[in-house]
Write a structure and sequence with these properties.
Length: 319
């Protein structure tokens, strides 16, 4: 509607003039508003080549200007033009835009390890892109958790719990279990899933025996999911899927034999036999794994259980 640049005398003297402010008139289908803008926005308007009749958006926080196109009210009678015509914006001239950003608690810890600017949400999010290398203390984590809890209570933020999967949990030591035990008591803690194939074994870092190598006080906080061993048919199906993914062909007899080996040893060992069996078949000019290839590979390699039995029976072989 209106675009006027107001100039004033140069404060440094001389014959030049400087821009004091910009008067901009904005119009939508619902109303009109005249704004007196900072002279720094004039550079953005010039860069976007804004003129009367253009449809633009101005970000109130940053002053960024985006030219969408020419208003269709200024359309000409030409059949072909380089200009893009858009309809007049609807609604109020001043609109509120809600920005939703997904961040983790670690992102907030890193961004506020050396805080710069204000303490509001915008300042916290704007500092995420500033790389820093500094220590994240427990005091900082506690402060971040307190702020996040306040934002959740106010409805500004929403907590989306993550999932932490820890495989072979018996490999953790007592210090890791102590930290996890304390962290799980927090209201901001993720859903933690532990996986292990051990029975009663020693907790690393101690002389204590515990179920699955996990301290009993931490084990009491868990729901233990009962799992059953794979049957031969299920192992054959898994091996077939793995062979299909890796582009390996094998006949029905070889698949049944690998199912028997998986039942005798382990599924992991049977799956690892696929690549050696394929290489053995290719050396004889075949692209499909046969039963003889699987038998030959089974003779060349040992699984974990067979290797343990061999060492137990061989006195003085390894000490």
């Amino acid at each position: 509607v209106e675009l006027t640049v107001e100039e004033t005398e140069n404060a440094l003297g001389g014959y030049g003039r400087t821009i004091s402010h910009v008067v901009l008139g904005l119009k939508t289908s619902k109303g009109t508003k005249t704004l007196r803008l900072d002279p720094s926005i004039h550079e953005s308007l010039t860069k976007e080549n804004v003129s009367v009749g253009d449809v633009i958006y101005i970000e109130s926080n940053s002053g960024a200007v985006k030219r969408v196109g020419r208003s269709d009210a200024f359309a000409t009678e030409f059949d072909l033009e380089a200009e893009e015509y858009v309809p007049v914006p609807k609604g109020d001239v001043h609109k509120k835009k809600e920005v939703v950003q997904d961040v983790t608690l670690h992102d907030l810890d890193v961004a506020n390890a050396q805080p710069q600017g204000g303490k509001d949400v915008v300042s916290m999010l704007s500092s995420l892109g500033k790389p820093k290398k500094t220590e994240i203390t427990d005091k900082l984590r506690t402060e971040i958790n307190r702020v996040v809890n306040r934002y959740i209570d106010q409805g500004v933020a929403e907590l989306v719990p993550g999932v932490l999967f820890v495989d072979e949990v018996h490999m953790l030591d007592i210090e890791c279990f102590t930290y996890l035990n304390r962290s799980l008591e927090s209201t901001l803690s993720p859903i933690v899933i532990f996986a292990t194939n051990r029975g009663v074994c020693q907790i690393r870092g101690t002389d204590i025996l515990a179920p699955h190598g996990v301290p009993v006080d931490l084990l009491d906080r868990m729901l233990i999911v009962r799992t059953m061993p794979y049957s031969k048919e299920e192992m054959m199906q898994i091996i077939s899927i793995r062979a299909s993914v890796e582009g390996i062909e094998l006949n029905e007899e070889a698949l049944k034999l690998m199912g028997d080996i998986g039942t005798r040893a382990s599924l992991r060992y049977a799956v690892q036999m696929l690549t050696p069996a394929r290489i053995l078949g290719e050396t004889t000019g075949r692209t499909k794994i046969e039963k003889d290839d699987v038998m030959e590979v089974d003779k060349l390699f040992f699984d974990g259980k067979a290797s343990a039995r061999l060492l137990a029976q061989s006195e003085g072989y390894m000490k």
